[in-house]
Specification:
- The protein has one domain.
- It is built from four helices and two strands.
- It has a two-stranded antiparallel ribbon with strand order 1-2.
- Helix 2 crosses helix 3 and helix 3 packs antiparallel against helix 4.
- The longest helix has 18 residues.
């Protein structure tokens, strides 16, 4: 998945700045496929007027990218395996992604 930082999508350095992950932790070779997958998700799931990415979808893209990066070191998305209350899983949905992307969601009917 090649990442294309055009049409309002940020370049890799901007992504790093926005989500707070330095290049010493995540190289360009590691970040590019993650950003490419998030970009494919946004382009495939949402539609918007014009060419430039709206602010809400820019945030959706950043959150999807950040969630993937954060989950990289968590086997099966499990956290707190040593916590007092037992194992917890990362949620499959992010309410902010749902809220920010709602006006642009592609509607499909079966």
């Amino acid at each position: 998945m090649a990442y294309d930082p055009t049409a309002g999508f940020p370049d890799l350095d901007t992504i790093r700045t926005e989500i707070g992950v330095p290049s010493t932790v995540l190289t360009d070779d590691q970040l590019e496929p993650i950003a490419g997958a998030a970009q494919d998700s946004v382009v495939g799931s949402y539609e918007w007027p014009g060419v430039e990415l709206p602010a809400g979808l820019y945030q959706v893209f950043l959150r999807e990218t950040a969630r993937t990066i954060a989950a990289r070191g968590l086997p099966l998305g499990m956290v707190g395996t040593d916590s007092e209350y037992g194992v917890a899983r990362l949620t499959t949905r992010d309410s902010e992604i749902t809220r920010l992307g709602a006006p642009y969601r592609k509607r499909t009917f079966a």
